[in-house]
Amino acid sequence: MRVHEIKLREIHMSLVAPFETSMNVTTARRILLVEVRLDGATGWGECVAGEDPYYSPETIDTAWHILRTYLWPMIKGKDFASAADIWSMLEPVRGHNMAKGALEAAIWEGEARERNLPLSKLIGGFHKHLPCGVSIGIKPTVEALLEAVQKELAAGYQRIKIKIKPGRELNEVKALREKFPDIKLMVDANSAYRLEDWRILKQLESFYLMMIEQPLGWDDLFGHIELQRRLDTPICLDECIHTEEQAKAAIDFDACKIINIKLGRVGGYTVAKRIHDLAQQAGMPVWCGGMLESGIGRAHNIALSTLPNFTLPGDITASKRYWTEDIIEPEVTVNRQGVIHVPTGPGMGFEPKLDRIDKLTVRSERLV
Fold first, then answer.
1. Quick one: CA torsion of 275, 281, 283, 286, rounded to 10 degrees?
2. Average pLDDT score over the chain
3. Which of 108, 159, 245, 311 has its CA 20 to 30 A from that of 145?
4. pLDDT for residue 190 is more than 90
5. Under DSSP, is residue 312 helix (H, G, I), strand (E, B) or coil?
6. Which domains does the chain have, with CATH numbers?
7. Among the options 100, 139, 161, 163, which is catalytic?
8. Residue 163: active-site member
9. What's the sign of the alpha-carbon dihedral 325, 351, 13, 138?
10. pLDDT at residue 24, as a whole number
């Protein structure tokens, strides 16, 4: 197998509504798509790097540079047995997981199409139906938050996650629990707190949360070890886990009780599967978080979430929650029971809308 050509595209997509976290407010996305041409098929991937280096040091611009200048030359003209070999070929480049993950995912998708297999089957997926949760950004008022949650529950979503930051957590969670006492509820801080804030996080325990996601610094593994000792509520690590080694350390030292696996953050399917297996062996559940992806990134999240230890509802929502029109067909839908049916067609099971992608493209580059 060989990659004969790569095409990079930057597309611009406006969100249906602004999405606020402890880091920033997003109203539109610059999205980097990676298309690879293999011997007998084409595969697509999406780089989830943001416009700014707030969630991760990577941005769409650094990823573009790394892909064209370093990653493409590493695989150009080289034969490999399967997509599983790509990670080791890219290993000389340190970090830049989102750039690597986009390229690697596109090659996995292309291989699945060549073999006429669903991508979920090629990676060893098990689940045929995925329970879905939803992530709700910080709202201007508690009333607006309650209204947003009511809307998502009515749409069938099985778990609610709200973004929090200092001063915007206790009142919000208290109000939610009073109005919706039985829902599955979690909070996500995106590294907004420090260990000395642990008493505030401790107060959240009276509202019986499923988990508190990434409360401390994005690279503060030891802080989370100490915080988890002080909390009964499970900590879920997200930004702290970029490698298999970091996942092993988090598990061995009890820094968390749940891991959020994001394909781009860990560099693609090969490492994601290794982290999945480590957590499964330790009896620790995992789930898949979202990064405001287009349908291509969302389709990859669906495939990843079919692995057997993805036992908690992920942030894999319907296309219409974020986009007036997505770039795949059919668009991703969630039924009234809050479930996505895993596609059974070859590759990711969705087809890129090439006309729409071309319309949204603001720059492109062909690498041969």
1. 20
2. 97
3. 311
4. yes
5. coil
6. 5-116+354-367 (3.30.390.10), 122-341 (3.20.20.120)
7. 163
8. yes
9. positive
10. 87
pLDDT tens digits, 78-94: 999 999 999 999 999 99
Residue pair 46/105 in contact by the 8 Å Cβ criterion = yes
Q: Do strands 159-163 and 133-136 pair parallel, antiparallel, or not at all (unpaired)?
A: parallel
Q: Closest Cα to residue 41, out of 88, 85, 4, 10? A: 4
Within the chain, residue ranges assigned H as helices are 60-66, 72-75, 86-90, 97-114, 119-122, 142-154, 170-179, 198-203, 221-230, 244-252, 263-266, 269-281, 295-304, 354-360
Cα 275 from chain centroid? 14
**Out of 262, 320, 353, 359, which one is annotated catalytic?**
262
Q: Which residues contact 7 (CB under 8 A, 6 or more apart)?
A: 34, 35, 36, 37, 364, 365, 366, 367
Instruction: List phi, psi (to 5°) of 225.
Output: -60, -45
What span, in angstroms and rounded, lies between the C-alpha atoms of 335 and 171? 31
Residue 116: CB partners within 8 Å, gap ≥ 6? 346
**Mean pLDDT value across residues 194-210:** 96
Which residue is listed with tokens 């729409």? 356
Give the pLDDT mean for 30-49: 97
Which tens digits make up the pLDDT trace of 134-152?
999 999 999 999 999 999 9
What pLDDT does 281 receive? 98
CA distance from start to end of the chain: 16
pLDDT at residue 42 is higher than 90 = yes
At residue 298 the predicted structure's pLDDT band, cuts being 50, 70 and 90, is very high
Q: What is the mean pLDDT of residues 173-190?
A: 96
Number of alpha carbons in the 13 Å side-chain half-sphere of residue 144: 7
Enclosing H/E stretch for 352: strand 351-352
Reported confidence tier of residue 23, pLDDT bands at 50, 70, 90:
confident
Tokens 């340190």 correspond to 94
* 262 counts as catalytic: yes
